[in-house]
Amino acid sequence: MVDADRDGTLTFVRDGEQQTRSADLIVGADGARSRVLARVSTGATVPAFAGAVAWRAVAPTPAGTSPELGITWSGGKAFGIVPLADDPRHRRLNRSAHRGSRGPRSRYRSWFHTPPGSPPHRSVRLEPRKPHVNRIPDNPPGTVRTVPQLPAGLADVFCSGFVDTGRLRLHAVTGGTGPALLLLAGWPQTWYAWRHVMPALAARFSVVAADARGVGASDKPDSGYDTATLARDMVEMMAALGHERFSMVGHDIGMWTAYALAADHPGVVERLAVVEAAIPGLTPSAPIFSGVQVNEKLWHFGFNRLPVLNEVLVRGRELEFFSEQFRTKASTPTAIPEYAVAEYVDAIIRDPAALHTSFEPYRALEETMLQNQLRQHHHLTLPILAIGGARGLGEGVGETMRLAAEDVSTVTIPDAGHYPAEENPRAMLEVLRQFL
């Protein structure tokens, strides 16, 4: 039996013997009525499922949209078994799921048809895993069901979920079919920054738009904001979702993390797109006494690194402070709409720890810069696309990446400043499609 708001263990029968393995169960923002996709651990751990590669628990996706084998159900009504898209030996099955005595929290059994030459059936059921319980409240702020003005159809394809990496709990919005693609936004944004490009990308990719440590609905620990740790978080989160390899798009601080991830975890990232950032310790630093335009773009680096005073000055004035970032860094003062700015600011105001953690990646810059100086000794060889806004860093993104990578192409997004995915999503989507 499974409770819709609990993690689970997978129990299966092999050679007449019952065995169990951990299988996180992640429920979306609408609680017990959510569509849920649960997957088993890797094939090496669960050899009973012949042909399995990497099945783990992921955030819920609508039935039929996942490329990998899984169990889905909605409100206790029905579930499907969805095969690996690239393995024609598997067949899709549809069975009934039976309501438990407590209504929408379903109990069920399912059977997997396996490839020829292996036993024909595997009996599977999910049971509560103790003592850990990963509870998700209904419609928490900052998730798919609560953010404003999403593009049409996004909420039908994507669902919010919480991924427990074993170190912390991260919020991820997942949806789509195909190879895995991680989207990671920068300061002071959340996964919501990708909303305009997510639906189209989901037609080709299994998209994961994540909130990093300290951001949005993710956990906000006191430490761990250097890029080595932020990159490890993403690798562990993607592995927990069943993605041992993936492509990635990182913007701003998400670009810092993307570089660290590709450098520290070789072979994990297949293709890397980086957007609108200089990389501390890699990009030459601007002089302290710079022109007005440079100062307006970079003054916040020193301010955000302050240990205490920045929080004292900003708290209670979050809207004024963060709105100024969007007004001055976008191509025009109104390029980022007020409702989007309000969502980003609300994500910081509603959690007492969020303002502190929003500054932490900057406070960790000394550690990050030392890490990047070491990383630079081993150039990246994977394909990299450097994206700059025509009214932002432009070609500067590519100039930065060529200091640390061999296969770098550059593109400039017209009519965009620092936020191309929001300022000119059509152009941004086109260059991503061509590259990825």
Spell out the blueprint of helices and strands.
Blueprint: E1 8-14, E2 17-23, E3 35-38, E4 71-74, E5 78-81, E6 93-96, E7 98-100, E8 103-107, E9 110-111, E10 123-128, H1 154-157, E11 159-164, E12 169-176, E13 180-184, H2 198-201, E14 206-210, H3 227-240, E15 246-251, H4 253-264, E16 269-275, H5 292-304, H6 309-314, H7 318-329, H8 338-349, H9 354-363, H10 365-375, E17 384-389, H11 396-401, E18 408-413, H12 420-423, H13 425-435
Parallel strand pairs: 13-14, 13-15, 15-16, 16-17, 17-18
Antiparallel strand pairs: 1-2, 1-10, 3-4, 5-6, 7-8, 9-10, 11-12, 12-14
Explain briefly what this protein structure is.
This protein is α/β, with parallel strands linked by helices and 436 residues long.
Protein architecture, described:
With 436 residues, this protein is of the alpha/beta class. The protein folds into two domains: 8-128, no CATH class; 139-436, Alpha/Beta hydrolase fold, catalytic domain (Rossmann fold), CATH 3.40.50.1820. The protein is built from 13 helices and 18 strands. Strands 11-12-14-13-15-16-17-18 form an eight-stranded mixed sheet, with helices on both faces. Helix 3 (227-240) packs across helix 4 (253-264) and helix 7 (318-329) packs across helix 8 (338-349). The longest helix has 14 residues, at 227-240. The radius of gyration is 22 Å and the shape is globular. The two termini are 41 Å apart. The model is unreliable at 1-14 and 21-135 (pLDDT under 50).
